[in-house]
Design goal:
About 35% of the residues are buried. About 0% of the residues have low confidence. The protein is an all-alpha fold. It is built from 56 helices and 9 strands. The protein is globular, with a radius of gyration of 33 Å. Helix content is about 65%, strand content about 0%. Among the domains are: about 70 residues, no CATH class; about 80 residues, no CATH class; about 160 residues, no CATH class.
Length: about 1000
Amino acid sequence: MSNSDIPFFSQTAVLDRYAHTSAKAVDPTALKVVIKALRVNEDLRTYFFRSGPDYSWAEVLWDSGFFITPPDPEPTKEGYILPRWVDQEYLISVAKYVPSVVLEHVKAIKGHSAYIERAIHALLNISAEQVETVLSIILDWLDDPRIGPSISLKVFELMTALAKAGKSESAFSLFQKLTTPWPSQTLKSHGDYVFGAEAIAIFPFNSYERETLGKGLAALQEIDIGRTVRILEEQLDMALRLEAELENDLEYKSRSFWRTAIEDTGQDVHEDYKDILLRSLRDILESWARQDPGAVATLIERYLTDPHEILRRLALHLLQTFPANYTGIVARELLKPENLEALGIHHEFFMLLSQGYPHLSSSEQETLVHSIIAGPSQEQVERIADSAADDEEEQEKYAKSYSRWWILTRLWMLKAHLGGKPKELLEQLEEEMGQPEHPEFTSWVSGGFGVSDVSPITLDELKAKRPGELLEYLKSWQPSKDRIVGYERESYGALGGLVVEVIMPDVEKFGDMITEIAALRPEYATSLLGYSPRADVDPTKLWDFRLNLIDRLLSDDRIRADMEISYEGGWVNFRSSVVHLLKDAIVKEESTLPEDFFPRVRDIFLVLIDDPDPTLESDRPGEEWLGHNDPLTVAINHVRPEALAALITYSRQTALRRKEEAKQGFGVERLEPIVKEALSRKVSRYNDPSLALHSVFGRELIALFWLSRQWTEEHIDEIFPPGEDEEPIAFYVAAWDSYMAGNRTVYLEIFRYLRPKYERAIENVSKGYVTKSNLQPVKALAKHLLLEYLESSYDIRSPEGAESLVAQFFNKTKPDARGQAAWGLKEICQPSNKKFETYWPRAKSLWQWRVDEASSTNYSTEFNDEMIGFSYLLLSVPKSETLISLWPLIERMLPYIGRDERWDRVWHAFQEYVATEVERDPVRAIQLYRLMHDQLNAPIQYYDDKARTIIETTAANRESRKEALMLIEKIARTGNYEFNSIHEMYS
């Protein structure tokens, strides 16, 4: 069949005899011939798989090595394309019949993310139980920045399918990963301004995926609406906190100007991730309020006192949407005088005025109208008047006008319901001042507005100029003094974009003048580097042009040393763009950079690792600046440290291309001498005093160990310098926290070598020597130590355990750090972790140790953070654990219930756990639930669906009924009667 002399269709005719019959029925000799033909003849293989063979062939072909290695990228004039992997497409088509092969395929697949995405597609065709066996692999893929974004849409579909199948833990673990906020890759700082600080997620949350998002959220709501809400809350809080940290905004919780209205209006047209989180949370809460108003009342009450202004606004939105369901809360909020003046909640409160007023009693309506007619507070009037005018007489006039306008806008919201004197006053004010337009908004934009960068000259006009004329024009042109005219602004960047269109199609015509033009302005140089060529441009010639241009420009001392920043950037930005362009070129699979040019790229990095950016001042920004005490953030925004990181990446990529060498572990020498010399020079803080640059050595520590263990061990005390003075400590912490932030995987071989450094890191944390990175280096350190503990065999209470690093961490650090460690243990011990069953007994022992320590201090508040984190382990316990087996832990955790007046996370973790166990052990469940109530300092106003599950189940069971009814009575005695119907049914 492989004989090239046999016509192709004669060969396919033979294949057809076997393809549509069971592979198990094929003669063994013929089977070998078919498999050999498929392996060596690509055309036959393509024909075979596209002909739709019987599903039984999948198992035979898997055993023969198919479905593992995808095809290599194919070169085209435009670059490389990924060919269709016909083997995989066939497997997808028969997936439901051969789930075991699909699972093995997922476990084995390597290569481009496009093929991984198709493998996930195959999982959609098998059972949810089977999918769960490879969940940890999918979670690891989502953690990989090269893979996660590309597969996120398909993973979201898979999450939706798991949710519909009732696989709540698996679905929510994927949802948590898909929605976790991260800093935008476009983050840049310029003076007082930070650009691109919006949080993002690996799932492309945008208007195009709104339907996909809606379906997934609907499926999650169906299985656990409360948990869906809680995750969205947490992610919104994290997104806001992340953006605030990047912008150095300490008051972010008390400001919500980024959202004009909680409901969708024409005033909020952007699609930032935080907006989508808020919108999703709003929609779910509205749906929940229709189904179970009482459960949502709990959230409304909590939101109304939350430090986040946006959540207070969300609570008011729910009240104005469903005022009849919450008349008591509506009345309370409308009658608060401070709400009438609060600017931050203006829109939602004004909507509540309109929608809630009819649901007030007559006396409440009279009180509210009286408060409005009384006008704004004197303090507010004086403050507004002082800011509006300098002259005392003018201030008095403005104060009077402002007060009357203030009354008008608020009465206007009640217009349909007013009568008598209030109505007469409103009409009088309306006649005097006119009708207010959109008084429910603090500002109103009637249409979109944007400023576009434009060129002062057209492309045709530029093309008409001879090379010399073009050069002279570019030398003399400057943007007009009125930089913004209408919606347009003249800019060097826009002009440079057109100049490139003139030069690049005819490079030979312009010759050396191109370098002269590029050297005029960084915007022109950047445009030339970023030029997207026509399909027929030889990539080798293009890269040769780019690298030659970079070399010539960087040989100019003026360009290489310039640190001035203009509105459009500067030469610093150009040098930064060089680093990112070349780093992407050596990393990305679709790159067209010839491998022969790699040494030239390396030499450019070697120049830029001595770039003057950052200066000592920008390397260590003050408290009011982005990157304060956060070298890792400074590093990604400056040239020199990013060039160093790119140089290490270059070394790693070149080593990976030497495949035999790449397969070997630590200990192989992979660093080129010229790179090794450069690293040896830059690692010394005496040669380069930049903390940001030094942090790169920590961030890339594992890569450095892999590239040259000998070099890394020789310089380990320079990377983590000893000493108790301020400077060595700063360098140690800069490198260590970056090592923690950049390396979530623990290599025990390296861990053991670095043990003294881990001990020093614990001491640093105990003394507060920690950077302010938003990547949580303290939690990362704790997770390293926890993983080492979980992989070991010593008893945490033994002498060896007492000397362990994890014990040192808990014994020496402060409550906040210990709390982060508890959360870290909870994150490691997820059922989706393939080592979960192995880790659990040791995690439980550690948890018991910490609970006993808390007990020995009479349940000190210093253990509050820890116990909150540990309580969430209850949501991950294996089925082998029961209420009885966990009782020694649970009993000693109880004193930590009732300590948080706003949102008691320990209570809610316990309650969710009890709800999962109540069917299995109703007697012990209701006993625990009663003990939980005994810990409360204040009664619970509203119970959620978990509480109802517990009480209904235990009341229905004869053995647990008595205690359930007693608990209902206890709850009723606090004034809450929502379980009385259950009591009546069973008493």
